[in-house]
Amino acid sequence: MNREEIIARLKPIIKVYVDDKSSLDHLDESTDFIKDLKINSANLVDIVLDVEEEFAIEIDNTAMEKMLSVGASIAVIEQKLADK
Amino acid sequence: MNKEEILDHLPYSKPFLFVDTIEEIDENGVTGSYTFDKDLDFYKGHFKDAPVTPGVILTETMAQVGLVCLGIYLSGNVEGGLPGHVMLTSTAIDFMKPVYPGEKVSVIAEKIYFRFKKLHCNVQMLNEAGEVVCKGTVSGMVTNKMNG
Predict the structure, then answer these.
(1) Among A31, B6, B19, B44, which lies 20 to 30 A Cα-Cα from B107?
(2) Which tens digit of pLDDT belongs to each residue from B71-117?
(3) Which domain, by its residues, includes B109?
(4) Strands B132-143 and B85-95
C-alpha cells in the first residue's frame, strides 16, 4: 500500500471528527490534527481506534503519541503493516 | 484501590459532589448511588416553584460515578499508575423521567473501552422504583492534571 492509498483510506476516518469540512480540502502529509483540523485529544483517540480497525493493525501507546499529523500517522501505519 | 479510597480521591465537595456510595466496581464497570438533597441551591430556580433536578446535573451525576470513579479505579490499578483525574470530553444522553428533590438514584456504568487514556462508557440512571431515568454514553480523558 503506498502513501496515497493510505491517505485515501485515512480521509473518511478523519472526516467524521472534523466540523469544518472545508479544512479537509487541502489535506496532505503536513496536516496537523489539532492545529489544522481542530480535533481534540479525545477524538484523536477515536481516530487511532478507527485506524486500527481499518488497517487491521494494533497501535501501542508510544506509536499513538506520535500520530499528531497525517504524515506521522502514515509512517506509523506503514511501520505496523510492515511488522505484520 | 478500594471503594473508600476512590471516594476520598474524588476532587469534588458539596455542593458539587454527586456520589454518596459505590456499591460495586471492577475492571468492567461501576454501580454507585446518590440522594439529591432537597435543599440543593439549584432547586430554587429550576424551576420557579416547581423543583426538578436539571438534566445537566443528572449528566454530571452519571459522569462522576461512571467516568470519574471508574477512571480513578482503572488508572490507579495500572501497574505503577497513579490514580488520575478525569476530564469530561463528550456526552450523549437521553432523558426519560424527572428526578425530584430528595430522590435517590443509582448509576450503572459499563466500560466500552479504556485506551490511550480515554474512557468511554455506557451509563444509565435508575430511580428507586427501578425505572430508567436517563441513559446514554459519556467519555473522558484520564489525566494527572486538574485543568486540562
Answers:
(1) B44
(2) 999 998 876 667 788 999 999 999 999 999 999 999 999 999 999 99
(3) 3-143
(4) antiparallel
Contact (CB, 8 A) for A57 and A80: yes
Question: Is residue A60 exposed (0-12), middle (13-18) or buried (19+ Cβ within 10 Å)?
Answer: exposed
> Could you give the number of structural domains in chain B?
1
- Identify whether B148 is part of a domain: no
- Say if A62 is an interface residue toward chain B (CB within 8 Å): no
* Contact flag B139-A42 (C-beta cutoff 8 Å): yes
CATH of the domain at B62: 3.10.129.10
Superfamily designation of domain A3-83: ACP-like (1.10.1200.10)
pTM for this structure?
Answer: 0.91
Q: pLDDT digits over B43-55, tens only?
A: 999 999 999 999 9
Q: What is the Cα–Cα distance from B69 to B101, expressed in whole angstroms?
A: 24
Residue of B nearest to A49 (CA): B115
User: How far apart (Å, rounded) are the C-alpha atoms in residues A67 and A78?
Assistant: 12
Residue B27 covered by a domain = yes
Contact call for A41 and B139, based on CB within 8 A: no
B46 labelled catalytic: yes
Task: Using a CB–CB cutoff of 8 Å, tell me whether A45 touches chain B.
Answer: yes
Specify if B8 maps to a domain: yes
Chain A residues near residue B78 by CB distance under 8 angstroms: none
Tell me the pLDDT tens digit for each residue of A32-79: 999 999 999 999 999 999 999 999 999 999 999 999 999 999 999 999
> In chain B, whose CA is at the least distance from the CA of A39?
B89
- Asked whether B54 and B117 are in contact (CB, 8 A), the reply is no
